[in-house]
Write a structure and sequence with these properties.
Blueprint (H helix, E strand, L loop, with lengths): L6 H22 L9 H13 L8 H28 L4
């Protein structure tokens, strides 16, 4: 196969033909539209009503939970430190 003399022109024509073929084939495809059945619309409404969001958490509630968790962590750390000091060193 011979190399074309103007490779840029060859590439441009090749890309243009590919794009044109893609657009022609795309336009010739049938349009697909979803068909809604009578019962599906009512079910969709019922499902959306069934979905509920969890209640919003306020910063004060979150801070209280974090203080409780930190208190428990401090208690565990103090117990671990006491158990380390009670063990005799070898």
């Amino acid at each position: 196969m011979q190399v074309p003399k103007d490779q840029g022109l060859f590439f441009a024509v090749f890309v243009t033909l590919c794009l044109a073929a893609t657009v022609v084939l795309w336009m010739s495809m049938p349009v697909h539209q979803a068909v809604e059945l009578e019962g599906e619309e009512e079910e969709a409404v019922e499902e959306s009503e069934a979905l509920t969001l969890p209640p919003a958490v306020t910063p004060e509630e979150r801070l209280k939970k974090m203080e409780v968790a930190l208190g428990l962590a401090r208690a565990v750390i103090s117990q671990l430190e006491e158990s380390q000091t009670d063990k005799p060193k070898k």
